């Protein structure tokens, strides 16, 4: 019995792939598979909304929130910064809120302190009523105030002129009082070093006036414990514009001296 030697052909069926309950015929067909996959893909979220849509949505949400809260403008800071920006080519000044500046000035403004003259302490007052009437005639009814203690009567004047008037009045009536010197009446005081203590104060005063200063008083300084005269002198000058020139003086009366400011106690 003869056998057929021809090779037998094996038929194969194209592979079938099931994708989500759908049969895909030929997986090697790229175009069909790609289209199938694209059709079955889940749709992606849409692109971000346009600026106009974002603005509308934010405005809507802001309207809803405004019922409960006061929401400041998120861009108000940028707007304020723009008002303060400068342009080198712009000659017009930048307008700033003058009302806010006025309020800042009003809060930072402090009243200027008025320097009152020193008080006067009067002793041995017999008739306060008659004294107060006399003071009111000299200075005015609202120009002074009084305060009584067990030992003296304290007078406080409002101006330096009234202070001087009351001092003259007390001196003319031989009143017992004490007070302090006015700041405006204080002299310009310096210290002269290295002058021999036997030097006459009149000679020192004349030598300084020759330089161009007006001398009020010259006093020799004495040691506070031993009471021995020291080679130092206080010189009180009248207040003038050239007072500071005294520190440039290095020699008077054949003596090399040094001019210094007095030490504060």
UniProtKB/TrEMBL annotation:
Looking up InterPro entries in the UniProt record yields: Pre_C2HC_dom (IPR006579)
Top-level taxon of the source organism: Eukaryota
- One short Pfam name that applies is PRE_C2HC
Q: Where is the composition biased (Low complexity)?
A: 45-63
The region called Disordered is annotated at: 35-63, 83-111
Q: Ranges for the Pre-C2HC domain?
A: 201-265
| Ranges of compositional bias, category Polar residues | 35-44, 84-109
Its protein name is Pre-C2HC domain-containing protein
